[in-house]
Design a protein that fits this description.
This protein is mainly beta. It has 3 helices and 19 strands.
Amino acid sequence: MAARAALPLVVLVLIVLCSATAMAEATVKKYYQGLPEFAADPPFKPFDEAASRALTAALHAASDTRTPCPMTKAAQDFPDVKGNICRAADASRLREVLAGVAPSLDPAKLALWKVDLDGDARPELVVAYSFASAGEPGDPYLAIWLVKPKAVRYEPLYAGTYLAGQVHAVTRFGPSKAKVLFVRSQNCTECHPWVFLHAITFPAEGAPVAFFEFTYAKDHAAFGPTIEYALPGRGHSMDAKVETRVPAPEQPATPHLIQLFRLDDGKTEWWLFRCAGLRCDYELHMDRLPGQYLRAWLRGERL
């Protein structure tokens, strides 16, 4: 698979080939249109001191699990959305607090993650809200916020809305070795979708969320906030199986991300990404992974 132009984060218009009849008919489906404007019109009211105290108590008392559990179902035939606060009583207490500060969000559609992204021993809460778009059939979307302590109150930071989204992992990543939220999404709900990962970091107090950007372009010029996680093939992309790992930071030269593309023709490609700040450029090796990186690959965390 030769280096290629990076794909955009959001594919607004998808041409779908429908084969209901012998002759394929082209139709147009528009994604991300008519969705709630969470960035411009946040569903959260400001946290007062009482709500902040209640959230602190509920969050500290909640048990988080290493293995995520299904917590919500947006609509019939939609995928369950997972969280890591799996004990019903813990989730119920947190949803009760959130209902007071975000009354427009259906508590039954909230999946919750207890995390400590900045390592300060004060847990944050990732709120993943699952909803269906208008129309028949509607498409599944996931909106994400990080609710983090700010002085004596909490501040919700909007981290985007994702088609068929799922919180995929929370793990250390990048030059700073801080924990990063990996979100999985796809570019369509028909035919054979591209599946992407988005690496989201939540910076210092008062700053918005930020995305790591990656390039797969031959000229290393075009960067975008997506990692290619699964390829549909079938003429839409290369026919290949993709495996993605985050190596342990054993030495300064260790890549921050390694991807193995196993092409259907028997060839393999190794994409080694190193990040400077939030921009991640690649080093490409055909067929064999150089020996100095083998240990990093074998001991890496599989995403």
